[in-house]
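Researcher: Go.
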Amino acid sequence: VFGRLSAAAHAATFELVVEKLTDLISGISFVKFDTQTPPTEVSPYMEDCIQYLQVTFMCLTHLSREDREGVHYAALGAARAALEGHLLDPRAAPRLTAAGAAQMGLDAGALGAFADGCGVRGLREALGPLEALCRALRDPDLLVALADPARRARTYPQVDPSKMVLLLEKYEGLGMLAKIKQQGGRQDLPQFEKKDIQNLIKELKNQGF
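Model: Structure:
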């Protein structure tokens, strides 16, 4: 009986942590992923998430090491799913620019850096697919690398081409003013032509994605 109660308590801990974290991530709705302005700092919702995880993880000393690490993996996995889900959802994020993708990359990178400092082996890997998507969207060679299956497998092993199709379908290039502003700036965002993006989408769909 005690064992069953203990297991139930641990399951409840997992559920509460994930539920609260997912609620904090809902603050992402205030982030404009169609922005023309390159990001300069981590979004407030992500700062709240990291602060919550810092406090929460420090309060897990009553759990066994296995259960503590389980909570870590569950939390980061839920965070990745929620962040990726928002980015892919055409209603939540109907448009996406290179600057918007860079903001998601900055936020995901901050969470990844936090994961690196948690002392749990392989924890950051839970964010791998999301970070890979963000890196790919900032790669000036994206259109060429994605089209070729062999090169895609080497360059973006964690990128799901079907998800990339969804992102590219709502991708918008930088406006002229944004292009001028970023010249000589600290961030060089890729500037893809719409016709090239459409050709890539067509090629990926022909490949079954």
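Model: The chain has ten helices and two strands.
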